[in-house]
Amino acid sequence: MPTFQSVRGMRDLLPEEAETLNHVIAKARETAELYGYREVITPVVEPYELLSAKSGEEIRQRMFTFKDLGDRTVALRPEFTASIARLATTALKNEPKPLRTFSVGSVYRYDEPQRGRYREFWQSDFEVIGSNRPEADAEIILLTNSLMKATGLRNYTFKIGHIGVIRGILSQENVDDKTQNAILQRMDKKEYDEAFNILNPRISRTLQGLVELKSSSAFETVKKIKAHVKGYDDAEVAADNLFEILKLVTESGCEIETVDPGFGRGLEYYTGTIFEVYTPELDIALGGGGRYDRLIEVFGGEPTPATGVAHGLDRIALAMGMQKTALPTRREKRVLVIPVNEELRGEALKISQRLREAGIPVEFEIMGRKMAKALEDADRRQMNYAVIVGERELKEGSVVVRDLAKREQTVVAIEKLSEKIRG
Question: Where in the chain are the domains?
Fold first, then answer.
């Protein structure tokens, strides 16, 4: 018989890994609730035309696409934003604005597998639809900061930029959208020479000078950006917008370390502020997002401003492991229930159910082991108590409770059992 392995780039998450990922998911859900975002669940499979419309050439090339039985071209979602934009033009079209949505689940991209980069991975997605104000952009950054704090990560940093600065220059120089997208794709990969060679030398020098701007202060960098793009009206407006968002975020207690004037990100739909968050242990972003004011219109909706962020939950879990961030200790005691013979299995199962109904996690001895072996197994799996169901105690409405850490045991009335275990 062949031994099967998981498909390359896909992973089995073993219990401890699954526990960490679920912990991060729970923190994302808590963050959504704190900020007023309501969860929506969208399909893993969407029409290819929807997902490819404004995703960017690199992501289009890395989508898992196939024909369904109706000969329609469909794809596994590479991210959530397109699905949310579809909802905003259909089922959520008449919802009051702003519309705040939260989604969590697996997404798929045919990337080269490496540490922190998989072909199936998990994201939490937050979108704000209906506001063009800087407060909305600030909120997306602040909730990302809240999630990073909630997971216990340390020394994470933010990088921020504004796609409107670059697009403002290129649009005023009459560079068409397709060429702009090609330039931004290369800038996103820091292939600046390849990006600028597409342009004439004068525009190339302007962008090269922009990319090279540096300062010890985020605010100083933004001021330098504005001075550098003087005469490009839309780019100046974008620089002002970035300054205002930066001010709101820092006044709210979140520090932005880096303003990157040449920051691109790999999606074509961005129109304004873009950002990413990093930890020193990983050279890939834990999350990122930005403003996309024209995407909903592309999908047939009214012109609607929007901004959002996606967090790489696997990467956050990986960073937690690298920083040795401890998960909260389990509060509930874990219990193994053992009948001393087969005739008592029914009564022992009844006691197990009674404990579960009281909210106590219980495992039942289903391997038919002798008492010594069952207790040895309970120790190995770090159970807190063994509840031993014997004939003599049962006649008196009691069971034996063994504290596995203290190696002590007492007879406890069944009606007092959950109280005893909780301590």
Answer: 15-322, 335-422
CATH code, residues 335-422: 3.40.50.800
Report the predicted TM-score, pTM, of the whole model to 2 decimal places: 0.91
* Tokens describing residue 230: 């003087």
Report the interhelical angle of 134-150 vs 233-251 (nearest 10°). 40
- Give the span between the Cα atoms of 124 and 180, in whole angstroms: 29
Residues in the chain: 423
Regarding beta strands 258-259 and 287-291, do their DSSP bridges make them parallel or antiparallel, or are they unpaired?
Answer: unpaired
**Quick one: which of 378, 340, 332 has its CA closest to 356?**
332
Pairing of strands 258-259, 157-162: parallel
Residues 11-34, mean pLDDT to the nearest whole number: 97
Asked whether this chain's domains 15-322 and 335-422 adopt the same fold, the reply is no
**Superfamily name with CATH number, domain 15-322:** Bira Bifunctional Protein; Domain 2 (3.30.930.10)
Could you give the C-alpha distances from 113 to 2, 78, 104, 334, in angstroms and in order? 24, 15, 22, 37
Query: 385 — phi, psi (to 5°)?
Result: -135, 150
Work out the pLDDT band at 326, boundaries 50, 70, 90.
Answer: confident
Range 4-12 average pLDDT: 94
Residue 189 in this model has a pLDDT that exceeds 90 = no
Which residues neighbour 410 within 8 Å (Cβ) at sequence distance 6 or greater? 400, 401, 420
Cis peptide bond upstream of 15, omega within 30: no
Nearest CA to 299 out of 8, 54, 43 is that of 54
Q: Convert the pLDDT of each residue in 41-98 to its tens digit.
A: 999 999 999 999 878 788 899 999 999 999 999 999 999 999 999 999 999 999 999 9
